[in-house]
Amino acid sequence: MLPGYGAGDASTVILQSYLRSLGYRADGWRLGRNTGNVPAQLPRAAERVAKAARRAGGPVPLIGWSLGGYLAREVARDRPEHVEQVITLGTPVVGGPKYTAVARSYRDRGVPLDAIEAAIEARNRRPIERPVTAIFPRNDRVVAWQACIDHRSPDVEHVEVTTTHVGMGSPRRRTASWPTVSPRGAEERDASNLPDAHSLCASASSHVDRAAMSFL
């Protein structure tokens, strides 16, 4: 289970516990805090997944929250032999941080968001070979829900839930309100109408502050 930006395994403890109560084996990524440095963290995550697959005797499912979901997707893209399936929670699959409420902080540090978006789009041209379930809430308040819609993966299911970005880590409070959206239904959504990053940052800054506190 891969945590979101700024978070570590402590942020997924509740979700791990819930999955264990259902009889699943759940484990954190054990790589410390997700710093957001994807080029540095992706090889480490891939090696961690490879070790888990060797211990399990076969490919393992990956669950990633927010940026952790992006890392899970890219591990599956690069090392499909080690991944059974990918489940993402509020994960932007286009734009990286550009369509999230932390875009302003990246831009203030001089991070080229347009270049990141282009690099992600280039990787997306190589489809993920494993099944993907993309879980997202329209009322996310941190990530634009449109950025969570995957138009590239050949085997993707979109599941819309009634919660917020932070609330996705508390499954006992939200499982009753998870209507399933078919892949075709998701494709018909106007996911190209992404919000301006500046307006998203302005409207969601307080929620990001609370999210960061809950992660640390």
What does this 3D model show about the protein?
The protein is an alpha/beta fold. It has a single domain, classed as Alpha/Beta hydrolase fold, catalytic domain (Rossmann fold, 3-Layer(aba) Sandwich), CATH 3.40.50.1820. The chain has 7 helices and 5 strands, in the order ααβαβααβββαα. Strands 1-2-3-4-5 form a 5-stranded mixed beta sheet. β1, α3 and β2 form a beta-alpha-beta unit. α2 crosses α3. The chain is globular, with a radius of gyration of 16 Å. The two termini are 17 Å apart. The C terminus is likely disordered.
The general outline is: globular
Major beta sheet summary: 5 strands, mixed
Q: Into how many domains do the coordinates divide?
A: 1
Q: Based on DSSP secondary structure assignment, what is the total number of beta strands?
A: 5
What is the assigned CATH homologous superfamily? Alpha/Beta hydrolase fold, catalytic domain
- Strand adjacency order, main sheet: 1-2-3-4-5
- Which stretches are low in confidence, meaning pLDDT under 50 for 5 or more residues running? 174-190, 196-216
**In CATH terms, what is the fold-level topology?**
Rossmann fold
The rounded Rg comes to 16 Å
Distance between the termini: 17 Å
Helix content: 25-40%
Structural class: alpha/beta
Q: Report the total helices.
A: 7
- Write the element-wise H/E pattern from the N-terminal end onward: HHEHEHHEEEHH
Please write the CATH class name: Alpha Beta
User: Which CATH architecture?
Assistant: 3-Layer(aba) Sandwich
Strand content: 5-15%
Overall residue-averaged pLDDT value: 83
